[in-house]
Amino acid sequence: MEGEVIEGINLEFRPDTYFPESRDRAQLLSNIKGQARRELVSRQLDEEGFTSLDTFIARPELDDDQRAAWGRVHPWMMGGEFLPDFESGEVEIARVSLKSTTFDQKSVRAKGYGDDIHLSVEDEYGTEYELPFNRVTKPLSLGELIEFLNRTDHPDDIYSGGLVFSHWNYLDDEHYHPAECVDFATTESAFYPELESYYLEYGKVWATRKMEDHIAEIIGCDTTEITTLLEKLHPEWTLERLFKLDEDLFELLEKQHGLTPDEFEKSVRQY
């Protein structure tokens, strides 16, 4: 299954090659394994230019002593630093970043083998992921890459959804706010400029559906009736404000549907 259509995102986009003779800035940055260092180098280039770069920060990987020193700054600095080194001719075509304690990273890689391209997924724990396919004859389209991400499974994961959605689904099951779920696992790519935007936009759709499901379960209605409910309330009420409402307050809200959210909160405090 390819990615769900999101307005403005071209799922048919396909890079000409993963192995250009001359690499652009984003592709060069993707050589830096550490995510914190990669982001720092990107900011320095934007703000101060090439001459501002520190050779320590910009190097592709750190040795054990350098990595230990870097990690003492903050655990997040370790994100990506324990990824395997790139093999000769291997490139990163996409990355999934997790806002875990140590900022864990997952690297989707491509390497040419004759007329074929070999795909792999690496993380910082030596996981052998179950891939939907691992050889192609040309670079993936954006839709095909999304399919690859969504169908690549961790062997021990009980949550479906591949490299991104499985984390959203797990956190949702742990009752995190949908927006927090989406923010936890994000993507980037030097070869697919719209990959990050796709998951951000799809994340908004996903979060809206989760909020609608939650509200519908509380008040015992179908999700299609949520719009009708909002139309009965003061215009300042939004899906987000309803989602944050305690379960036992919906009955009271029905009686005071003409109040704004702030007026309703004030009314509740007086009870």
Summarize the structure.
This protein has 271 residues and is α+β, with helices and mostly antiparallel strands. It has helices at 25-29, 35-48, 55-58, 64-71, 142-151, 162-173, 178-184, 195-219, 226-232, 239-243, 250-255, 261-270; strands at residues 90-98, 105-113, 116-122, 135-136, 185-188.
Fold and architecture overview:
The chain has 271 residues and is an alpha+beta fold. It has 3 domains: 151 residues, no CATH class; 49 residues, no CATH class; 50 residues, no CATH class. Strands 4-3-2-1-5 form a 5-stranded antiparallel beta sheet. Strand 1 and strand 2 form a beta hairpin. The longest helix has 25 residues. The radius of gyration is 23 Å and the shape is elongated. The mean pLDDT is 92.
Q: Keywords, please?
A:
271 residues, alpha+beta, five-stranded antiparallel sheet, 5 strands, 11% strand, elongated
The biggest sheet, with number of strands, parallel, antiparallel or mixed sense and barrel status, is:
5 strands, antiparallel
Low-confidence parts, pLDDT < 50 over ≥5 residues?
A: none
Shape: elongated
Query: Strand pairing plus helix content: what structural class?
Result: alpha+beta
Instruction: Report helical residue fraction.
Output: 40-55%
Helix-strand blueprint:
Layout: H1 25-29, H2 35-48, H3 55-58, H4 64-71, E1 90-98, E2 105-113, E3 116-122, E4 135-136, H5 142-151, H6 162-173, H7 178-184, E5 185-188, H8 195-219, H9 226-232, H10 239-243, H11 250-255, H12 261-270
Antiparallel strand pairs: 1-2, 1-5, 2-3, 3-4
Helix pairs in contact: 5-6, 6-7, 7-8
